[in-house]
Amino acid sequence: AQSVAQPEDQVNVAEGNPLTVKCTYSVSGNPYLFWYVQYPNRGLQFLLKYITGDNLVKGSYGFEAEFNKSQTSFHLKKPSALVSDSALYFCAVREGNYGQNFVFGPGTRLSVLP
Amino acid sequence: SQTIHQWPATLVQPVGSPLSLECTVEGTSNPNLYWYRQAAGRGLQLLFYSVGIGQISSEVPQNLSASRPQDRQFILSSKKLLLSDSGFFLCAWGELPYNEQFFGPGTRLTVL
Fold first, then answer.
1. Which CATH superfamily is domain B3-111 in?
2. Which of A8, A24, A106, B10 is deepest in the core (most CB within 10 A)?
3. How far is B92 from chain A (nearest CA, A)?
4. Residues of A in contact with B97 (CB under 8 A)
C-alpha cells in the first residue's frame, strides 16, 4: 500500500531564508511524486512533480524538490522564502503505471515571518 | 485550456436533509474524476473516483454516494445528512498515467 509522511506539522521560516518542507513515501513500485499548495478556503494548486529523469525538479513560484530514492524522500525547497509562500503544503504519491489513485500526506503548514 | 467548476461554494444544511454537490470539467475528454473530503483544513480523504460514465469506486464506506451521469460531470450526494458529514469537499480530475490532478475551488458544507 502507498503511504506518505510529512513529519513536520508546522514549519516557520524568516522571509528571505531558505525553506524546506519534508516528505517521505512508501510504494511498492516506481513512485510518481507531487507537491501541492493550498491557500485558505481554496482548492489545491499543483507545484511540481517527479515522474522520471533528473532527481532535481523545478516547479512553479521558484519551488524545487529533490527525489532521493535511497531515502524515499521528496523534500520541497525554495532558496528564499516570501511571506506570500505561507500556506498549507501537501506531498502526494501515486504508484507509477498501475495506481489509479493519489495518496496525500497530512500537510505541513508553512509560516514565513516578515 | 481545462477548467474545473464546483458548486455551490458554501452550503449550510440541517441534519437529515439531502445533499447534491456538483463538479464539472471543461476542456478535456474522459478524465478520471475524484471526490475528496478535507477535515479541519488538513489531510485529504479520497471518497470516490470514477474512470468513466457510470463507473464509481468508493474508497470509504459512509453516508455519501457519487454518480457520473456525463463524461465531465461528477455529483456527490446524500439522502440524509449527518453532523459528521460537515467538511470541505474537493473535486479533482486527472489523466493517467503521468499527469497530476487538478482541483476545483471546493465546497464548504456545514451540517447543523
1. Immunoglobulins (2.60.40.10)
2. A24
3. 9
4. 32, 96-97
Q: Domain coordinates of chain B in residue numbers?
A: 3-111
Q: Classify A93 as helix, strand or coil.
A: strand
The domain containing residue A93 runs over which residues? 3-113
Closest residue on chain A to B95 (Cα): A100
Q: Read off the pLDDT band of A41 (50, 70, 90).
A: confident
For B79-100, what is each residue's pLDDT tens digit? 999 999 999 999 999 876 667 8
Contact across the interface for B96 and A102, Cβ inside 8 Å: no
Q: Lowest-confidence range among A15-19, B58-62, B82-86?
A: B58-62
Cα gap A49→A93, rounded to integer Å: 10
Question: Are the beta carbons of B108 and A41 separated by less than 8 Å?
Answer: yes
CATH number of the domain encompassing residue A103: 2.60.40.10
Domain count, chain A: 1
Please state the separation of Cα A113 from the chain's center in Å.
Answer: 20
